[in-house]
Amino acid sequence: MKWLIVSIFSLFIFSACMKPYHDLRPLEFARLKYAHSVKTVTLSDGVELAYVDEGTGEQTIIFVHGLGSYLPAWQKNVEGLRDRYRCIALDLPGYGKSSKGNYPIGMAYYADVIRRFMEALQIEQAVLAGHSMGGQIAITLALQHPEKVTSLVLVAPAGFERFSAGEAKWFRDVVTADAVRLTPVQQIRANLAANFHNLPADAEFMVTDRIALRGAADFKFYCEAIVQSVNGMLDEPVYEYLPEISQPALIIFGENDNLIPNPYLHGGRSREIARIGQERIPDNRVELIPNCGHFAQFEKPVEVNGAIKSFLSSGK
Q1: Sequence ranges of the domains in the chain
Q2: Which superfamily does CATH assign the domain made up of 26-314 to?
Q3: Which of 11, 44, 45, 104 has a Cα-to-Cα distance from 187 of 20 to 30 A?
Q4: What tens digit of pLDDT does each residue of 241-271 get?
Q5: Which residue from 81, 162, 173 is spatially nearest to 127, judged by alpha carbons?
């Protein structure tokens, strides 16, 4: 009888915790609420990109989000830096308010999208800031079109950590469109929480957005974009080309990153991955932020914004 009482009590607690999520109404991507005014631009191939464009300054920073994310990932940085720089954050195709469809998604594709986005906005050069997958995209563009990128801000970037053929297969087997589509509500929250050392209360919108979007008309394209993005990171590695980066780079990692290095395949500490960038990128500065996880720019925006200001004002 005791186990039954405990089980019923546990179920009650679980249901109480999940109740707010049960009350969520289905949400279309176009109805997502962003902290800043959203603009759109249509590229020559018909892809429509959503972006925010705040502030002015001699330097323009373009912020690129990570896997499964969207431009609000950078809202605290746009807010904190727009008094000194022109700050532009965009949704990549397949994500957020940007177009969804059957695109040839990969690191080179996304890098070219950003290049064409810059041309559409008549931006000749910019600082490229990328988080996680966005960091690998930023590196790819810096290598392919060095004339477009003045410097790099790499926040917990993908691309420094290497994966064997067997490890890559494990990734592909785990991340499928069905797995993304059918992720249970409690796992959605757990996945988001894993990005932080301490999940901030003001990050809750990321959980509710992700849950509410499950019924969106374009949700299947979002799920497929995640799968293609993972394949792109695996199929288009940048590790061997890091010594060819000609731009100064700011490398930022939270000391308590739970996602890099991969906890299932490699283990270890983020400082070990940061050291790879420090040793292989010719001109760089490394910042390790204590009591901070993978989503450093949102969890510790004051520290990240301060590091960016110092880096850009010093020229390194």
Answers
A1: 26-314
A2: Alpha/Beta hydrolase fold, catalytic domain (3.40.50.1820)
A3: 104
A4: 999 999 999 999 999 999 999 998 899 999 9
A5: 81
